[in-house]
Amino acid sequence: MTNLQKEIMNIKKDKNIKILAHNYQTYDIQQIADYVGDSFYLSKISQELDCDTVVFCGVNFMAETTKMLSPDKKVILANEEAYCPMARMISPDDIIKFREENPDYTIVSYVNSTTETKAYVDVCVTSSTALKIMNQIENKNILFVPDENLGNYIAKKIPNKNIKLWEGYCNVHDRVTTEEVYDLREKHPNALLLVHPECREEIVNLADFAGSTSEIIKQAKESSNDEIIIGTEVGVLDYLEATVPNKKFYLLSKHLVCPNMKKTKLEDVYKAVSCEGGREVVIEEELMNKAIKSINEMIRLAE
Ligand code: CIZ
Ligand code: SF4
């Protein structure tokens, strides 16, 4: 560990702070975090935290979800400018308008959405829980927002449902091309290809497995194959390279770097634990009471 990492470890212990980090954070941040995972795992953990303050290393909707699930704790987003552009591709007004025009639809939102949007939808899902949750929705008519690729991936698995898709996308995963898949398959013909369902349908169809970041990590570790192509953000590859030295990992595309996830630096984490930086998450009570319903429904249906 570097001196800065050691200092962060000492401060967080002294101040009873817990650090949560998404799998897309740089490995030096993952090393000093108490909990690292995909967005469902981080939501679940947020309900069980035993600390005064949480420093969240990820993007703002994730820190806001943590705040809603542990409202008595101070939650600090380590880099105040880190956000998910896809979350802003749908607004509460869009949802209100759709409901007026389509009153017979259940509205499902990927957690990569703003807290304001979450306040108007029926249930949230993560990539690891979407299929399980949407299978339990009795209504045949479902609107899925904002990620068209993830929505399409789930819709193909439950053809009995009538799923309308919003046209949002992750500008990191959506950029992966079939040429990149063919190229890496040719260079590493025996490698296993693991992708995130935020990638386009044609990429998912060429993969050996599609799943959330934590599911990709699990597959990579448990597979008997010792060569693996990672079709999600580079943070996952960095973690695997550091912790599974006997296997070889290749990044599917050089575009798989999320600029927002990479905004958080170790220095930001140091400032946040020192109460000299980051942004405290504050959610107005009425909004929180509305938005938490779709998060609680997600957790209930995913159990
Ligand atoms: O932002 C993403 O791409 C997420 C939440 C991925 C994941 O599976 O955790
Ligand atoms: Fe948003 Fe994509 Fe970055 Fe995830 S990887 S935070 S979906 S832009």
From TrEMBL:
GO molecular function: 4 iron, 4 sulfur cluster binding; metal ion binding; quinolinate synthetase A activity
A Pfam family this chain is assigned to: NadA
Cofactor(s) needed by this chain: [4Fe-4S] cluster
Top-level taxonomic group: Bacteria
Catalysed conversion reaction: iminosuccinate + dihydroxyacetone phosphate = quinolinate + phosphate + 2 H2O + H(+)
Iron among keywords: yes
Enzyme class (EC, first level): transferase
Key words, A-Z: 4Fe-4S, Iron, Iron-sulfur, Metal-binding, Pyridine nucleotide biosynthesis, Transferase
Pathway(s) of this molecule: Cofactor biosynthesis; NAD(+) biosynthesis; quinolinate from iminoaspartate: step 1/1
GO cellular component: cytosol
GO biological process, one term: 'de novo' NAD+ biosynthetic process from L-aspartate
EC number, as in UniProt: 2.5.1.72
Function, as annotated: Catalyzes the condensation of iminoaspartate with dihydroxyacetone phosphate to form quinolinate.
NCBIfam families given in the database record: nadA, PRK09375.1-2
Protein name: Quinolinate synthase
Species of provenance: Asaccharospora irregularis DSM 2635
